[in-house]
Specification:
Number of helices: 3
Number of domains: 2
Strand order of the largest sheet: 8-5-4-9
Shape: elongated
Radius of gyration: 23 Å
Number of strands: 9
Structural class: alpha+beta
Strand content: 15-25%
Distance between the termini: 68 Å
Length: 178
């Protein structure tokens, strides 16, 4: 590779690809559009790493440092992907896998809650409710729980701590004896 190519690539990275890379990173974190952005990045990475554009290499490295899993393969073994802590070798191909979603369940000090309430749930909008019966998902698209039994707003309790992650998993049963 000539020095002219290195300088040209460096300036492209600094002037536009750097910003584009971080715009793509935000898109990757952003749901459905993120799937397309991740697929696009992985298409860019699907060649020996030393041949990948600097912006894509930097983005892959930044995502890996942010907890996104990386797989590698040899160029002559297209289907043989292996998880790794990457060494970023120039002759290997890499791809970025979707970042595992962190799950933090909502919590509340149950000693402050009337005994009739057995369940704490949080919906897709971040609202949280206490329910005497186990709630069921009623609106998988909009992120809602069946409202028949959701009779107490849990966010009014000072001990309430919101959860994080897939709202369908943000359901907590009251512990025995609490």
């Amino acid at each position: 590779m000539s020095n002219d190519k290195v300088i040209e690539e460096h300036f492209a990275f600094v002037s536009s690809a750097y910003n584009e890379g971080f715009r793509v990173r935000l898109m990757i974190d952003g749901g459905v559009r993120g799937v397309a952005a991740l697929e696009s990045l992985n298409r860019d990475l699907d060649k020996p790493f030393g041949e990948v554009a600097l912006a894509s290499r930097a983005l892959a490295f930044a995502l890996w440092q942010d907890g996104w899993p990386i797989e590698w393969r040899r160029e002559d073994c297209p289907g043989d992907w292996r998880e790794c802590s990457p060494s970023w070798e120039g002759e290997l191909c890499y791809r970025v896998l979707p970042k595992p979603e962190e799950l933090v369940l909502p919590s509340i000090d149950w000693s402050h809650v009337a005994a009739e309430y057995r369940w704490l749930v949080q919906d897709g909008s971040g609202s949280a409710y206490l329910s005497p019966k186990e709630p069921a998902v009623f609106d998988a698209q909009g992120g809602g729980w069946a409202a028949f039994w959701l009779v107490k707003d849990a966010t009014h309790f000072s001990s309430f701590k919101p959860g994080k992650g897939d709202w369908r998993k943000l359901i907590v049963q009251r512990p025995e004896g609490a």
